Amino acid sequence: MAQKDPCQKQACEIQKCLQANNYMESKCEAVVREMILCCARMPRGKSISCSGFEKEKPTQERLNSNTTSD
User: A single GO CC term, please (predicted)?
Assistant: First the structure.
């Protein structure tokens, strides 16, 4: 039996947030930060959900980013 993707929950939360906010990314920054943090804890290739986040580094500047585009 295949193991559950360790960051799937965060990936689903991003999708829910985007749908609930008419795909305005600025409204979902907190859930994206949670995904970045989850992926940072995983070894490369461990989570298929992290494939688009593996190059991301959870730098303090990015985690504290409060800029919005609306």
Answer: mitochondrial intermembrane space
